[in-house]
From TrEMBL:
The keyword Transcription applies. Keywords: DNA-binding, Transcription, Transcription regulation. Residues 1-58 form the HTH lysR-type domain. PANTHER family: SMALL NEUTRAL PROTEASE REGULATORY PROTEIN (PTHR30346:SF30), TRANSCRIPTIONAL DUAL REGULATOR HCAR-RELATED (PTHR30346). One of its GO terms (cellular component) is protein-DNA complex. One of its GO terms (molecular function) is DNA binding. This is LysR family transcriptional regulator. The lineage of its organism: Bacteria, Bacillati, Actinomycetota, Actinomycetes, Sporichthyales. Belongs to the LysR transcriptional regulatory family. It holds the Pfam family HTH_1.
Length: 286
């Protein structure tokens, strides 16, 4: 069994297509197919059910994939550790980030990191804080930028990057548009747009209204600040967002909320034997 065979199997499983898997691996399809068949023969099982139009992962294949990925990850880590022992930093760096990062200029940080460590293979995925914490624990991410309510700190290793109170966002035609400050009680009867139920972005406001003994109505759910701001601009809803998320030129009004929810941004990581690349990123990102 060779590492390249494992890479081929994982690519086929990802694409459910031998041609696209071969393109991803920069190899001829015939060569990739031959190696997959050779591995199946060695294992004595069929990893993929194939027809001329369809490729599916078999039950044996589903059982094989997690360990195959773990083998590749271990091989990459072994190479990274060996290079680190002689002063080089290389290997993968898997970063997760919420879509509303404001505590640091992530592209600028990644640019500095790439300049300092050009042999590190950086990957970046955007997601929800809860899922990224699980990915850190499982070793699927090395570091992550999280945004959480002040009452729910991460359960992974972390440090605080920023702390701020959310701002009420209303349209220029809204009845409160002329106010400089409001309280949650002033907003409770308004239709809200917020992040989906169960997300950390939603929890910040839910906890604050619950603590104030108030019940609001969330009429719209969205996963991006851009969509939220569009709904607010057309006076369909009000929102509560981190100040840095709202562009200065956005045609909306920002109002301070004196008893509004607090949001913390964290840099979190898997503290179990972090890779040299992860440690270097943690040193740079502050």
């Amino acid at each position: 069994m060779e590492l390249q065979q494992l890479r081929y199997v994982l690519a086929v499983a990802e694409h459910r297509n031998f041609t696209r898997a071969a393109e991803q691996c920069f190899v001829a399809q015939s060569a990739l197919s031959h190696q997959v068949k050779a591995l199946e023969k060695e294992l004595g099982v069929t990893l993929f059910a194939r027809t001329s139009r369809r490729v599916d992962v078999t039950a044996a294949g589903e059982a094989f994939l997690p360990a195959a990925q773990a083998c590749l990850d271990a091989a990459a880590r072994a190479a990274s550790d060996a290079a680190g022992a002689v002063g080089q930093i290389r290997g993968p760096l898997r970063i997760g980030a919420i879509p509303t990062v404001t505590a640091l200029d992530l592209p600028a940080v990644l640019g500095r990191f790439r300049a300092a460590h050009p042999q590190v293979q950086i990957s970046l995925a955007v997601g929800a804080s809860e899922q990224m914490q699980d990915d850190l624990e499982a070793g699927r991410l090395d570091v992550a930028l999280l945004g959480l309510a002040a009452q729910t700190p991460p359960y992974t290793a972390h440090r605080v990057l920023d702390r701020h109170r959310l701002t009420a966002i209303v349209s220029t035609a809204h009845r409160l548009a002329g106010r400089r400050r409001v309280r949650l009680a002033d907003l409770v009867d308004e239709p809200f747009v917020d992040f989906p139920v169960g997300s950390s972005g939603r929890a910040q406001s839910e906890l604050a209204f619950a603590a104030a003994g108030l019940v609001r109505t969330v009429a719209f759910e969205a996963t991006t600040a851009d969509l939220m701001l569009g709904l607010v601009e057309h006076n369909l809803a009000v929102a509560m967002l981190a100040p840095g998320v709202v562009p200065a030129a956005a045609p909306v009004v920002r109002i301070a909320v004196t008893d509004g929810p607090e949001r913390l941004e964290y840099l979190a990581w898997n503290e179990f034997n972090p890779s040299p690349a992860a440690r270097a990123f943690l040193d740079l990102a502050h």
